[in-house]
Amino acid sequence: MKAYFTDLFTGAWSLIVGLKVTFKALISPVVTVQYPRVKNEVTPNYRGHIDLVKDAETGSHRCITCGSCMRECPSGCIVVDGEKREGVKGKALTVFTLDFTKCSLCGACVEVCPTQALDYSQEYELAGSAREDFYYDLLKRVEERE
Ligand code: SF4
Ligand code: SF4
């Protein structure tokens, strides 16, 4: 008989403890979002893959095709190329690609750039089923960006 009441009390007590946790969660502030329908703001310090900065004044990139980032990159994941154009000082940028499969996000390219033409993107939804999905045309990206 004693064992019966002990079991009854233990069961009731565990139910109360469980419900306490449930009610506490019910009245606590919601800290999650309904991703992907709702998305959180990304902190400005977030380091996504590198990206060409769009200059607010000119509406174009700031790259002068010096190639410093390409030479400095320890993983060899940047390819920069340009061409001489009539009436344009220096080389006009024609190719700027990033192989993100090899990038370690060390930031050397961002630091070495003399015109602050590179920054980290805020991209975090990066998924793909092939290596080529992570080869980015940064020149095309900056041209298409609003
Ligand atoms: S962050 Fe580092 S590894 Fe990535 S592209 Fe720049 S220099 Fe290369
Ligand atoms: S270091 Fe800067 S200016 Fe030079 S090629 Fe790279 S992004 Fe362009």
From TrEMBL:
NDH-1 is composed of 14 different subunits. Subunits NuoA, H, J, K, L, M, N constitute the membrane sector of the complex. Residues 54-83, 94-123 form the 4Fe-4S ferredoxin-type domain. The gene is nuoI. The keyword Membrane applies. Its cofactor is [4Fe-4S] cluster. It is a peripheral membrane protein. [4Fe-4S] cluster 2 binds at residues 73, 103, 106, 109. It comes from Desulfuromonas thiophila. This is NADH-quinone oxidoreductase subunit I. It holds the Pfam family Fer4_7. It is found in: Cell membrane. It catalyses: a quinone + NADH + 5 H(+)(in) = a quinol + NAD(+) + 4 H(+)(out).
